[in-house]
Amino acid sequence: MNFEDVLALYELPLAELVYRAQTVHREHFDPAELQLSTLLSVKTGGCPEDCGYCPQSRRHATGVQDEPLLPLDEVLEAARAAKEQGASRFCMGAAWRGPKERDLAPVLEMVRAVKGLGMETCATLGMLKEGQAEALRVAGLDYYNHNLDTSPEFYGAIVSTRTYEDRLETLQRVRSAGLRVCCGGIVGMGESRRDRAALIAQLANLDPYPESVPINDLVRVEGTPLENAEPLDELEFVRTVAAARIAMPKAYVRLSAGRERMSDAMQALCFIAGANSVFYGEKLLTTPNPEKSRDRALFERLGIRISAP
Length: 309
What we know:
This protein is α/β, with parallel strands linked by helices. Helices cover 38% and strands 16% of the residues. Helix 3 links the parallel strand 1 (33-43) and strand 2. The radius of gyration is 18 Å and the shape is globular.
């Protein structure tokens, strides 16, 4: 699906757009089933990148404390708890530009251990060098997350320390290694509707498109360059979810960062528009997420079942 096609989706009447998205969704998924993933920061802070949205950059005074790589037993404890709560995928994130070989060895051990619990595994470690994606696959990694963030045209306003091509190169390494791809973006950073449409088109035209597509609503963190960004209109966020569902029919479209501020009604509309996955747990790396009890109550009210781990 090209850019003009995606932009045309955004410009449909909302009811028509959501109807089309729900129709596509039902062709490939049970509309009453939701997949849960849990995300843990296994190495926090001190990142040398300058991503304008990120509280873990050492260039931004956000109060996030640098922390070393977590010990294996803490990661396993968190993964077991996530599985008991219904999460089928456990994602491990490290604030690196990219892992050095000495960094990768303990992460491989984490991947092997979490995989041994019977969970799907995912990692987001920054840019990968030759051979690293293959090592992750051999250890049992199922998904690698590496977001495009925004459109190619708007990207330079958000990040200067790595290029769009750098991101695409890592995604190609991941695909070539036989890993599944988790790749999405962030909206509400001051981009235009055309930028949002261009992001969805860029994702949809990856060959193949990502199996997992996280849609993040910017969390405006004090101390980051985007702390005063204008909040995105809620219905524009719903349009983004619907466009992603239509453009990538078989992908899991995940409500990710920013969900803590979303009303129950907005989340319900996102599920109707084709979202069928969420990050579950009180924290996403360093930013807040809805309490588990609130999520469980919402899922019950909506008649949503959690897919089996």
